[in-house]
Design goal:
There is one protein chain. This protein is an alpha/beta fold. The chain contains 16 helices and 21 strands. It has helices at 8-14, 58-61, 74-77, 87-96, 155-168, 290-303, 320-331, 349-354, 364-375, 382-391, 423-432, 472-478, 490-508, 510-514, 521-524, 567-572; strands at 52-57, 100-104, 107-109, 138-144, 172-177, 181-183, 216-217, 248-249, 268-270, 275-276, 282-283, 309-312, 338-341, 360-362, 399-402, 438-441, 516-519, 535-541, 546-552, 581-585, 604-612. It comes from Hymenobacter jejuensis.
């Protein structure tokens, strides 16, 4: 990792300790009326949905091996196990501020590792991406990945023990649900008695039939993409540039061709939810399609394993009518389950939340993309305004905010910001802009830069999900299983300390969890020292707590504005313009000040609690 020394001013202002204010866990949002014509706020009454999700790639999280050989095998590069996520690890995650853990890659998927001695069929390398395989090419919906078990025949019991262990620390469990596609080698060996496997009763003579589980290309055989070289110079299991599939099935990313390209999701096959894609997407939803029932039963199976929620992969590639039906069906079994949808079409957000019954959706195309531009030294704070005022207006409390996940590049990578400190203002905004969930990806908190070409994953700024690998900067925090940060640099400890303080403040602040929002850009845009392109400020408030949040995204410029809170903003927040207030920075533990002439260091953030001067 590139050594980064924080300037003393930035260190003092952005990474010091903060005090937690007293707040009532049951206090309601402020009752002061807000004009719907006011362009600086919205009519939304925030809901307390402040889940703090820690996402970890289960295969990588506990891996202590440091070989990191290109296309290395499990034996060479190692693999993390369920049992590596110990009580000590979970306690550290809890202390970081998390309320939920998303265990990514739990369900069994196609892999090049040989588990035939355990009765698991060997996959064909020609239709597997990476030595370890994609966790989104599901091979058996009713089983867990054998990679993750110390004792493979006991793998489900080891997962169940992890769920119990996680709950014992007051953390809830989220796993993936992959509804749109499965591996080309899909076959459930672990399905409960009486379950009919996917495709087992399909009429393969028909391209589409409402109760078929897959789409077919009658008379055509599947063709492996000619450019695909599974292991580079090495040879994978059964690799011969052929894969027997007759008739060919449609590919997972809606490609209805027997010869998908190497850039397609060619290792997967599309599931049929009653949509006839080749006939103007005609819907055949009555009676309830067979695939719907099978997916419901799979969700109920995992709900009965005591998981607390599902992150639903590519939710928009499945018809919204399915979600409308299945989510209430599964919640009959466990009413407090949460459904979090991976979504990328802002025009469909409201429909998937209301009609589709999702609890939460990704805020990727809006807030993530806007913050990424700011962190990359491009864009401006208008992108943030667009998110709350237009894109997620009225349902901001149901949008998941994040800066990293398994699909995105690492902040510290040369492909993104190149500097983990760029996350200080951006993560503060992600966590505090609204009252919805916020997520952290393992290694983000110590500035993992994702250096190296792991195999199928190239040098692309991402931590691989396809290969066996150790995550070097995360391993320094893991410290051989002590999970105490013993091998972190001073700069990394400071960074992790920032994340811990921010997330714990987010978890305990009444105003952040349930408060209304009021933007202050208009009130300050004429200020000589207020760099509106890079400085962003807003209020969050309830009748119990009033906060002023300020972020400076500039990489190199210190701003020294005298911040203005307009009369309208003060009245909206229940503050008296004729009174004198003090401002205490809870994020950075600075002494209370009476004025708002601020010194905003580059890449810094501040959370001021506003109190009446005594």
């Amino acid at each position: 990792m590139k050594k980064v020394l924080l300037p003393l001013a930035a260190l003092a202002l952005a990474l010091a300790a903060f005090r937690i204010p007293f707040s009532s866990p049951n206090s309601a949002p402020v009752a002061e009326p807000i004009s719907l014509a006011d362009p600086n706020t919205t009519e939304e009454v925030p809901q307390d949905n402040k889940l703090i999700i820690y996402q970890l790639m289960t295969r990588l999280f506990g891996n202590k091996a440091t070989t990191n050989k290109h296309y290395g095998t499990l034996a060479e590069n190692g693999v993390g196990k369920f049992n590596d996520i110990t009580d000590t690890a979970l306690l550290a995650i809890k202390k970081l501020g998390a309320s939920h853990v998303w265990f990514t890659g739990v369900i069994e998927h196609a892999t090049m590792t040989d588990y035939t001695k355990h009765g698991i069929a060997l996959d064909d390398a020609d239709v597997v991406k990476g030595r370890a395989g994609s966790p989104y090419a599901i091979k058996d919906y009713y089983d867990v990945a054998p990679d993750l078990a110390v004792n493979v025949p006991n793998r489900m019991a080891e997962f169940e023990a992890l769920v119990k262990r996680t709950h014992s620390h007051g953390l809830k469990v989220i796993i993936d649900f992959i509804p749109n596609h499965v591996a080309r080698t899909y076959k459930s060996d672990a399905k409960p008695a009486g379950v009919v496997d996917l495709g087992e009763k399909d009429d393969k003579t028909k391209a589409f039939a409402p109760n078929n589980n897959f789409y077919y290309l009658p008379g055509q055989a599947f063709v492996v993409p000619k450019e695909y070289n599974p292991l580079g110079l090495g040879a994978g299991p059964r690799e011969d540039h052929k894969f027997q599939e007759m008739p060919a099935k449609a590919t997972g990313n809606d490609v209805f061709s027997a010869a998908p390209s190497v850039d397609d999701w060619f290792e997967t096959i599309k599931l049929n939810y009653g949509v006839d894609y080749q006939n103007n997407r005609q819907l055949h939803l009555t009676p309830v399609p067979d695939t719907w029932k099978k997916m419901r039963d799979i969700l109920v199976f995992w709900a009965n394993k005591n998981v607390d929620g599902f992150r639903c992969d590519m939710a928009e590639m499945v018809p919204v009518e399915f979600w409308t039906w299945v989510i209430p069906e599964v919640k009959k079994v466990k009413p407090d389950l949460i459904f979090l949808g991976e979504a990328y079409n802002p025009k469909e957000y409201k429909r998937y939340l209301t009609e589709g019954k999702f609890d939460f959706l990704y805020d990727k195309v809006g807030l993530y993309d806007g913050l990424r531009r700011l962190m990359h030294g491009e864009g401006n704070t208008d992108d943030i305004t667009k998110v709350w005022s237009q894109e997620s207006r009225g349902f901001g409390s149901r949008m998941l905010r994040f800066l990293e996940n398994h699909d995105e590049q690492r902040i510290a990578s040369k492909d993104f910001a190149g500097d983990p400190r760029a996350a200080i203002p951006a993560m503060t905004v992600s966590a505090t802009l609204g009252s919805g969930p916020v997520m952290l990806y393992f290694g983000q908190e110590v500035g993992e830069p994702a250096h190296g070409s792991e195999g199928f994953s190239s040098e692309d700024g991402r931590t691989t999900i396809f290969d066996y690998w150790g995550v070097p900067e995360h391993q320094k925090w893991m410290n051989g299983g002590k999970f105490d940060g013993g091998r972190l640099s001073a700069e990394q400890k400071q960074l992790r300390d920032f994340y811990s303080r921010l997330l714990n403040l987010t978890a305990t602040s009444d105003a952040i969890r349930r408060g209304r929002f009021y933007e202050l850009q208009d009130a300050n845009n004429l200020g000589q020292q207020y760099d509106q392109r890079h400085v962003y400020s807003y209020l969050r408030f309830t009748d119990k707590q009033k906060l002023l949040i300020v972020a400076n995204f500039s990489r190199d410029k210190t701003s020294k504005p005298t911040l203005v809170i307009s009369k309208e903003a003060m009245q909206a927040a229940g503050l008296n313009p004729d009174k004198v207030y003090t401002y205490t920075d809870l994020l950075n533990n600075a002494p209370a000040t009476q004025g708002l002439t601020l010194t905003l260091a580059p890449q810094s953030a501040y959370v001021f609690e506003i109190n009446l001067k005594q």
